[in-house]
Amino acid sequence: MLRFIARRLLLLVPIMVGLSILVFLWIRALPAGPAESLLGERATPETIQQIEEQYGLDEPIHIQYWEYLKTVASGDLGTTIRSRRPVTSEIRERFPATIELTIAALLFAVSVGIPLGFVAAKRYGTWVDHSSLVLSLIGISIPVFFLAILLKYVFAVELGWLPTVGRIDVTIDLEHPTGFYTLDALLAGDLAAFWDVIKHLILPAIALGSIPLAIIARITRASVLDVQNEDYVRTARAKGLPPRVVDRRHIFRNALLPITTIIGLQAGLLLSGAVLTETVFAWPGMGSWLVEAIRQRDYPVLQGGILFVSLVFVLVNLAVDVSYALINPRIRVS
C-alpha cells in the first residue's frame, strides 16, 4: 500500500510542473500585463519599463519561469496588488470557507444521491425509477445561478426562514481561530452562533450540491444495475443469504468504485471554487476571491490562486486513487 501511494505521489511532480507552466504562460498572455496592473492609472511607458526591470519582467521567458518556480517552491505565491498582502495569507482566510461549503454540499449530495440511485436500481422500471431519472435530469439541467436565486427568493425573501448572504449574522460576536465557522462556534460553546452558521450554509449547500447529487444518483443507479446481475450476486442469493446482506456486502461494495470516482471528482471541482454559488450568496470563499481578482486584474492572486486550486484538485484525485486501493486491493498492483 505504501509503495502504491509513493508511486502516485511521484506522479504529482510532473503534473504540478506542467500546471505551473500553463498558468505562468496564461497569465503573461493576458492583455495589460502585470506591470500595467501594478501601476494602474499611473502607468506610463517609463514607469512600466522601470517596474519590469525591478521585477525581472524584461528577462527572457524561461528565466522568468525559473525564478517563479523557485519562489513557488519556497512557499511564496506572491503579493496581491489590491491589498499588498501575501497571497498565501488570503488563501488561508478564504479556503476554509470553501471547504466548509464543499463539505456541506457533498453531504447533501451523497446522503440523498446514493440512496436515491440505489432505490431506483432496486425498483428498476417502476415509477420510483422513472421519477429518480426525471429528478436527476432536472438537477443536471437547471443552471446553478438560477437555482440559487430561486432558493433565495422562496426561502429567504418570501418565507423568511433562512438568510441570503454571508457565513454568519453580522451582529454575532464570534472569534474565528480556525476559519471554520461551525467548528469555531462549537469550540466557543456558542450554540446560537452554531445554528446561525448552519442556517447560512443550507441554501448555498443545496444550490451547490444539486448537480453533484444528480450525477451521483445516476452513476449509483447504473453501477448497481450492472453489479446486481453478476454471477457472484446470483450465487450469494442462491446460498440463501438475506437480501440486506447481499445488497450491502456483494452489490453495494462492488458498485462503490465508479461512485467513489464521481464523488472524488465532484469534491475536487467544488473545492476548486464554486464561483457562481459563492457570488450569488456573497460567500467569501476561493471562487468569489478569484472573480474579484479577474475584475481587478490582480495577476498575483490569479497566478497563485489558480495554481493552489489546481494542487487541491490533484490531491483530491490522489485521495480517490488511494480509496480505490482500499476498496479493491487488486488495483494496488497496477
Structure in words:
The chain is mainly α. It folds into two domains: 2-73, no CATH class; 96-333, MetI-like fold. It is built from 14 helices and no strands. The protein has helices at residues 2-29, 34-39, 45-54, 61-73, 87-122, 127-141, 144-158, 181-187, 191-227, 231-238, 243-271, 275-280, 286-296, 299-327. The chain is globular, with a radius of gyration of 24 Å. The termini are close together. The model has no long low-confidence stretch (mean pLDDT 80).
Number of strands: 0
Distance between the termini: 12 Å
Strand content: under 5%
The major β-sheet equals:
none
Number of domains: 2
CATH architectural category of the largest domain: Orthogonal Bundle
Shape: globular
Give the C-alpha Rg: 24 Å
CATH fold description of the largest domain:
MetI-like fold
- CATH top level assignment of the largest domain: Mainly Alpha
Low-pLDDT runs of 5+ residues are none
Structural classification: mainly alpha
Oligomer: single chain
The CATH homology group name of the largest domain: MetI-like
Topology as H/E string? HHHHHHHHHHHHHH
State the helical fraction: over 70%
The number of helical runs is 14
User: Taking all residues together, what is the mean pLDDT?
Assistant: 80
List the helices and strands and how they pair.
Elements: H1 2-29, H2 34-39, H3 45-54, H4 61-73, H5 87-122, H6 127-141, H7 144-158, H8 181-187, H9 191-227, H10 231-238, H11 243-271, H12 275-280, H13 286-296, H14 299-327
Helix pairs in contact: 1-14, 5-6, 5-9, 5-11, 6-9, 7-9, 8-9, 9-11, 10-11, 11-14, 13-14
